[in-house]
Amino acid sequence: MRILMIITALFSYFVNRGLTNSLYGTKTKFDFEQPLTNLVWITSIISILVTFWASYMLLGEQNAQYPGLWWALAIIISCGTIAGALIPEFTKIFTSTKSRHVQEVVSAARHGGASLDILSGFVAGNFSAFWEGLVILFLMFVAYLVSQHASILAIMPPQFAFAAPVFAFGLVAFGFLGMGPITIAVDSYGPVSDNAQSVYELSRIESVPNIKAEIKGQFGFEPNFDTAKDYLEEADGAGNTFKATAKPVLIGTAVVGATTMVFGIIILLENLYGNVVAQLSLVNPKIILGLLMGGAVIYWFTGAATQAVTTGAYRAVVFIKKNINLDKAEASIEDSKEVVKICTQYAQKGMINIFIVIFFLALALSFFNPYFFIGYLVAIAFFGLFQAIFLANAGGAWDNAKKIVEVDLKEKGTALHEAAVVGDTVGDPFKDTSSVSMNPVIKFTTLFGLLATEIAVTMSSQSLKNGLGIVFLIVALVFVYRSFYGMRVGDEQL
């Protein structure tokens, strides 16, 4: 199936390239988002067809023992594939330059400055989490219904027949990942177009003497710098949108896959102790306490990641203010390298704090109680899902609101532009730091959680487990403290 996924992605790319060349090859003005949208949908449709074909070939009607199994599995996997196409469409509603939510952010900034710009972006992010959550809910519900088909129940071990929906959710995650190559491709379009636009702007090529004649002499055409700038700005806007569309898809794979990993822990405990499933109930206080702990960790993580950005940005600005020389005709390469070094150092410091906390919390909580830890893992997945969607789409809305002001309205240097820039500086750590890094946090916690639980349950002494758990928890809390107080912007007293 993995080979088919890659082949399908490549085939879809070439189909879309031919379609794009025929539709837009001779046009000087077109929607830069449309070819990317076409690529996602072409891949989705072809992937679904290939899924049904492969399922039939492997588990077709000649399999009399499990009649209907091939189409039941194909439908469940296709739910994930459809999610990989629908979630980007819903994300565009809240982040595209043509979105009414993004236009609302611009209107709010015009009438209320940066404060209303930021509040309006929060609204877009919150609404997006609601609607995209419903999309994932609906498709997982369809997978649940299909998992009750007799053929699915028949392949489950008798003692775990109740877990057929969890098996189905794992297949939904597989369907999500079937869109993986294209999701990565459209996500990569964002930073490429962003950097291309930045390189062009920083090069100031249009101010180079006789540059048009030089380009015409070397390459045989006369450049139109105004048109080039507009193309790059529009490509950057489309890139902002599709950077935002990829994040919920990737987070969705982590969350849907996490349900399967949690079930793996349940199976482990069931085999060791028996009667574990009966205790997985909301009336079990350990489960409730674990849910609270997981939710708390997600909000700490968001703050710690953002604090690393805040401190790094502050230190970079301090260096720039100290060393800036406006009389120079060209930027200093050495000063630029120093700014990059400062930002990298604080990113790494923040990363170390976060990793140690996530690592030792997983160890500590699994040593305390497995039911508490299961609640923790479930909360990490679902709190993380909605927090990541909110952060990614709010950031995308602020980013493209600024793009509308700069490109469509051409109001650079105005009060409106100043307000939009403030919103964008808030949005960048939202969408490019806290949201996107939620994906590895969820995946690492669930994967390492399974290993940590195996370590814990093999230890016979509960007092030793409690002692180690307390030590690990103290280590984690020390680095939680360091993630803010060791990363302060300034130490001066107010």
What does this structure look like?
This protein has helices spanning 2-24, 33-59, 69-95, 100-147, 150-155, 164-178, 180-203, 211-219, 225-273, 285-323, 333-368, 370-408, 415-434, 438-457, 462-485. It has one domain. The longest helix is centred in the middle third of the chain and has 49 residues, at 225-273. Helix 4 (100-147) packs parallel to helix 13 (415-434), helix 9 (225-273) runs parallel beside helix 14 and helix 12 packs antiparallel against helix 14 (438-457). The chain is an all-alpha fold and 494 residues long. It is built from 15 helices and no strands.
In short:
With about 500 residues, the chain is mainly alpha-helical.
The first-to-last residue Cα distance is 61 Å
Which segments are poorly predicted (pLDDT under 50) over 5 or more consecutive residues? none
Q: What overall geometry do the principal axes of the alpha carbons give?
A: globular
**Radius of gyration of CA atoms, rounded to a whole number:** 26 Å
Summarize the amount of helix as a percent range.
Answer: over 70%
From the helix content, strand content and strand pairing, which structural class follows?
Answer: mainly alpha
Secondary-structure element string: HHHHHHHHHHHHHHH
